[in-house]
TrEMBL record:
Source organism of the structure: Prunus avium
Protein name: Protein trichome berefringence-like 7
Location relative to the cell: Membrane
Family affiliation: Belongs to the PC-esterase family. TBL subfamily.
Keywords: Membrane, Signal-anchor, Transmembrane, Transmembrane helix
TM annotation in the entry: 46-67
Entry annotated with the keyword Transmembrane: yes
Domain Trichome birefringence-like C-terminal: 141-413
Main location: membrane
Gene name tied to this protein: LOC110773432
Taxonomic lineage of the native organism: Eukaryota, Viridiplantae, Streptophyta, Embryophyta, Tracheophyta
Membrane topology per record: Single-pass membrane protein
GO terms of molecular function: O-acetyltransferase activity
Length: 424
């Protein structure tokens, strides 16, 4: 292409030189026959200028012909643009900024926030951890409008599936939405259950909006099973990485489906508990955890492609949330008063990389809520010793209100009408 442009430019330049010489020769002939006339010198100059303009126009036309301008396409990914840059906005690339309008709710006034996550009620004195807002680099997340969100979600069923960190996001969303209701009693758990980690299924109904928000505890997403016959004594149970959790049939009939997994895929939660992997009837004693996670997530992906009606259901998968344990054995929990100035490598996760890679290959639209980079800085947002069991420090879970509220603001920005929703 560049060779063509050079040839076109050279031809035009040669033609211009020939044309320019002819004009000057014509002027000289006239001057020889009629003397040196000042007026013709002016005319000669005008002809030369006109020729130069013609040359510039010809060059411009040639360039436009070879490189037609195409208007840039800007994907807002469900968020409002605050820049004229044509660069695609990555909502998860940004920084935390202080904002006195936060927090958006009081956990003590929300009966669906676990006491173990209500850090202020459990004695935390510094309140600054709840006054930070995530600011993407090239755009803004819309300010939370609870009434608009409730109207958008009217008649919907939202389902969270995952571990206790998924349950934290579930609790956060309920508390956020309750701020828009005068009658708090119109919101209730459908089975009258108290919010606790011991129950596999919880469902809260907003009766005035015919809205239901469910949580299913499935920490691995795939099916747990007892040890097969003739298994070694160290095998107490298995994970069927080729079979999705048997309660998956209850996830299908939903409008918004949010998954998370990864935090239980560790030696302490698996091998040290006597839990190993199984495919079909084959026990995979030597299968590495990352390989097993890939297999399990591919099982989930196949299920999603087969079972979910994506004309109705919007599917999300939240990436890995980096914890802030420290010390030689990662058993020390130091909660800071402010976010870290550096991610210290916590913005990267092999679990998150696996999630992103598998989702990209799927034939149905799934949005990855890639929270790993944004939570890497929030060493101040953890429960620490401000839980209902202060003798056991916690640098994995988050205080409410706090970091999970921002995940929900991002999630809701994808769903509000008028936003350009992109589902990868």
């Amino acid at each position: 292409m560049m060779e063509i442009v050079r040839n076109v430019n050279l031809d035009l330049f040669v033609q211009f030189r020939i044309f320019y010489k002819r004009v000057l020769n014509f002027g000289n002939e006239i001057m020889k026959g009629h003397g040196k006339i000042w007026g013709f010198q002016t005319f000669n100059g005008l002809v030369a200028i006109g020729s130069l303009v013609s040359f510039v126009v010809a060059m411009s036309c040639a360039f436009l012909y070879l490189f037609p301008r195409v208007p840039p396409v800007v994907h807002s990914y469900g968020i409002s643009n605050s820049t004229t840059s044509v660069e695609k906005c990555n909502v998860f690339e940004g920084r935390w900024i202080p904002d006195e309008s936060y927090p958006l709710y009081n956990a003590s006034q929300c009966p669906f926030a676990e006491i173990g996550f209500n850090c202020l009620a459990n004695g935390r004195k510094d309140k600054g951890y709840a006054k930070w807002r995530w600011k993407p680099k090239n755009c803004d997340i819309p300010r939370f409008d609870v009434r608009a969100v409730l109207e958008t979600l009217r008649g919907k069923r939202i389902v969270f599936v995952g571990d206790s960190l998924g349950r934290t996001q579930w609790e956060s969303l309920i508390c956020l939405l309750m701020t828009g209701l005068e009658d708090k009693k119109s919101v209730y758990e459908v089975n009258g259950n108290k919010i606790t980690k011991r129950i596999r299924f919880l469902a809260v109904r907003f009766s005035s909006f015919d809205l239901r928000i469910d949580f299913y505890r499935s920490v691995f997403l795939v099916q747990p099973a007892s040890a097969p016959n003739r298994a070694p004594k160290r095998v107490k149970s298995t994970l069927r990485v080729d079979k999705l959790d048997e309660i998956s049939k209850d996830w299908i009939d939903s409008d918004i489906l949010i998954f998370n997994s990864g935090h239980w895929w560790t030696p302490s939660k698996l091998f040290e508990m006597g839990c190993y992997f199984q495919e079909g009837k084959s026990l995979k004693l030597g299968m590495p955890i990352t390989t097993a996670f890939k297999t399990a997530l591919n099982t989930w992906a196949s299920w999603a492609e087969t079972m979910i009606n994506t004309n109705r259901t919007s599917v999300f998968f939240r990436s890995f949330e980096t914890s802030h344990w420290s010390g030689h054995n990662h058993n020390s929990c130091k909660v800071t008063q402010h976010p870290l100035s550096s991610s210290k490598g916590r913005d990267q996760s092999s679990i998150s990389n696996i999630i992103i890679k598998i989702v990209r290959k799927m034939t149905v639209p799934v949005t990855v809520l890639h929270v790993t980079p944004m939570v890497a800085f929030r060493s101040d947002g953890h429960v620490g010793t401000w839980s209902d069991n202060p003798s056991v420090p916690d640098c994995s879970h988050w205080c409410l209100p706090g970091v999970p509220d921002m995940w929900n603001e991002i999630l809701l920005s994808y769903l509000l009408p008028g936003n350009d929703i992109s589902l990868q």
